[in-house]
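Reviewer comment 2.1 asked that we show a complete input and output for one of the modelled complexes. We chose the heme C case, as it is the one discussed in the main text.
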Amino acid sequence: MKKLIALPALLAVLALPAHADNYSVPKHAAFQEECTSCHMAYPPQMLDADSWRAVMNGLSKHFGSDASIDQKRRAAIADFLVAHAGGRKTGGTRDANGKPLLRISETARFEKKHREIAAATWQRASIKSPANCTACHAQAAAGDYNERSIRIPK
Ligand code: HEC
Ligand code: HEC
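Response of the prediction step:
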């Protein structure tokens, strides 16, 4: 009897790290240097290629900030993001006008996963914005969005 229980339990444990690693950010020096000073390194897998191109073509007007960088680095980071971009899995990466979404937090996949969070929760001073992933996902920088690492701050 003991053996019958042990095997599924072991398989479950083995499956966890692979899942947690799903969104780890591949190493890329310029991306780390240019894209982590104002917020965490968002996982490239969470937007599709067209969205990343649009983000990287609009850095001078980046969500109210000027995040522009020199052309060579911009092209290198854009190539990196496009190479690791998510596919259909991100779901709904265009807005109602057919333009690529610029925000992970506006994709259908994100909205589905966060459906149960109330509007007032997003506005808490400790959270401020859905873009502030690390407020709730303590291990987000390591690509771990697992349920057991989630703490919604008061
Ligand atoms: C000067 C500061 C700054 C820099 C540098 C910067 N960003 Fe941002 N970024 C912001 C701000 C501000 C927001 C909006 C945050 C919010 O809504 O709370 C944002 C949001 C984003 C979002 C949308 C998050 C979401 O899902 O809502 C993406 C994607 C993003 N940035 C990518 C990048 C990339 C790629 C780089 C590097 C090329 C970069 N950012 C560099 C300031 C910056
Ligand atoms: C207000 C807290 C909060 C913020 C901020 C937040 N999340 Fe979440 N996230 C959650 C909760 C709670 C769940 C779990 C929902 C469930 O399982 O019902 C979740 C689930 C997820 C999942 C699914 C995990 C899985 O195992 O299926 C992903 C991926 C995710 N979030 C990514 C992000 C990203 C990326 C950001 C930032 C752009 C973000 N989240 C911002 C609270 C948050």
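The chain has a mean pLDDT of 88. We note this here for comparison with the apo prediction described in Section 3.2.
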